[in-house]
Specification:
Elements (H helix, E strand, L loop, with lengths): L5 H66 L13 H9 L14 H11 L10 H10 L9 H15 L2 E8 L2 E10 L14 H4 L1 H8 L10 H23 L8 H27 L13 H24 L1
Antiparallel strand pairs: 1-2
Helix pairs in contact: 8-9, 8-10, 9-10
Length: 317
């Protein structure tokens, strides 16, 4: 026969197999070859048993799902004109089992229940055009429903949001990076705006920084608070007028900046005095003082400190 005929190839394969078997017998011995065959057979049997059990488990799940569907009256015979079976199964997979009988309003399954109880075998078989349009608008298609994994992740994010927690993200070029940390930005009442918390307003560093400012620092007299606040503001207030004012290129720029800074300090001090005499804050009052006496003392020394800070900055210029 020809060199490449089927019979020639069969003889070659059989001779090759016999050679492999003979070499294996020589390497392992007869007992080793027999043990190898038994081990391979046992491994194959285990694999087939696992596949069979997995199929049986899948069939058990399918049977249990059918039994669950049979327990819910409106899910027994849902017309295809209402919703396709594939879409219904996907919808049920993302809906908790306890919500099948009484689904929450404004949910897809609630719309399915509404139309399945009204239309189908033994019920109404004709539907008006307006009801049909509303049904197609309310009921989803297969592609409109997310997978169970996506639905669970969305529900997890919603639960965190309602608990007042949000993922901490860091801005980068072209987007954000999730750090994996959670920020508790709301209190126990999610709709109370005065319980909102942020890293800036409720962070440890921010609280310590604000507590060390002259207005809140413990142990200071009202005049000490006022002179420190005034000197800080008066010192930097004249800078914008000197550098950015209309007379910035003239020799009088520093003098004009000093006058403008003093004018702002005077305006703020007058406003503080009006606030103290009308609202009468008692934060800095000592025992036996009139209401707002400590606050007015602080404002008076604020004017002194502001003028001194502006004058010191002008002297440096």
């Amino acid at each position: 026969p020809p060199a490449h005929s089927p019979s020639t190839r069969g003889l070659a394969d059989s001779s090759h197999a016999s050679q492999v078997l003979a070499s294996g017998r020589e390497a392992l011995g007869m007992k080793g070859l027999l043990g190898f065959g038994c081990g391979f057979g046992a491994l194959l049997a285990l694999a087939r048993g696992a596949i069979t059990s997995r199929r049986a488990e899948g069939s058990d799940i399918a049977v249990k799902q059918k039994e669950d569907l049979a327990k819910v009256a409106y899910l027994k015979n849902v017309p295809r004109s209402v919703i396709e079976q594939e879409t219904l199964e996907k919808l049920l997979s993302i809906t908790p089992r306890e919500e099948w009988e009484n689904p929450p309003e404004r949910s897809y399954l609630y719309a399915v229940k509404t139309y399945a109880e009204a239309y189908g075998a033994g019920k109404a078989t004709k539907i008006g055009w307006w009801d049909f349009v509303c049904m197609k608008y309310l009921l989803p298609g297969t592609d409109d429903l997310p997978t169970k994994k996506v639905s669970d992740e969305a529900q997890k994010i919603e639960d965190l949001r309602m608990a007042g927690k949000v993922n901490m993200e860091v801005p980068v070029a072209g987007g954000w990076i999730d750090t994996g940390a959670l920020i508790q930005w709301k209190g126990k009442e999610p709709f109370a705006g005065d319980l909102v918390q942020t890293p800036v307003t409720d962070g440890r560093w921010s609280k310590q920084y604000i507590a060390n400012m002259a207005f809140y620092r413990e142990g200071l007299q009202p005049w000490q608070r006022g002179i420190e606040i005034g000197m800080a503001h008066g010192y930097f207030l004249i800078g914008p007028f000197v550098s950015l004012g209309p007379l910035r290129a003239t020799p009088e720029a520093a003098t004009v900046g000093l006058l403008c800074g003093c004018a702002i300090i005077g305006i703020v001090s007058v406003g503080g005095l009006i606030f103290g005499t009308t609202i009468k804050p008692t934060r800095f009052d000592r025992e036996g003082d009139k209401p707002a006496a400590g606050f007015i003392e602080m404002i008076n020394w604020h004017a002194v400190g502001g003028l001194g800070g502006a004058g010191f900055a002008h002297a440096l210029l």
